[in-house]
Specification:
The protein is mostly helical. Helices cover 51% and strands 7% of the residues. It has two domains: 32 residues, no CATH class; 112 residues, 3-Layer(aba) Sandwich (Rossmann fold), CATH 3.40.50.2000. It comes from Mycolicibacterium diernhoferi.
């Protein structure tokens, strides 16, 4: 796909970078893709963000489709992947990230329990059938007599 106008300059810079000798032939720009279909072909999702995100959508999507997740230990990823729902690595620790990815790919049987924990967390906390009623209850409790 094409970049939206506001991001055109940034997209052009990314394309220039992808043509450098270190990256040539190793980076693909896919445009819009169906996340579920695409993730079904992956072994693991890596979210190596250096800026914390409150609720990283890619992590939530991967958890919901049963894809193991490795993420940097900050922001929403720390909370989402706690208690065995995923693997966390220190921010900007490339060696730890590489080691964790290698372990996950080499030990698919070992990540089965982690995937089960992640899917249960999504069902318990992030499924619309449970999340929206819980959110509404919390908002009504906060509103109290003001309604």
């Amino acid at each position: 796909g094409t970049a939206i106008e506001a991001d055109a300059e940034y997209a052009a810079e990314l394309r220039r970078l992808s043509e450098t000798p270190e990256l040539s032939g190793r980076v693909r720009f896919l445009g819009h893709v169906d996340a579920v279909t695409t993730m079904a072909t992956w072994d693991v999702l890596v979210n190596a963000s250096t800026s914390p995100e409150a609720s990283p959508v890619s992590v939530l999507e991967a958890m919901s489709v049963g894809l193991p997740v490795i993420a940097t230990d900050h922001g929403g990823s720390s909370w989402l992947l706690r208690d065995g729902a995923g693997m966390l690595v220190p921010v900007a620790d490339v060696a730890a990230l590489a080691e964790t990815v290698t372990w996950a790919v080499d030990n698919p049987e070992s990540v089965t329990e982690m995937v089960d924990v992640a899917r249960q967390r999504i069902a318990d906390v992030h499924d619309a059938r449970t999340a929206y009623p819980a959110m509404l209850d919390a908002l009504l409790d906060q509103a109290g007599d003001r309604l």
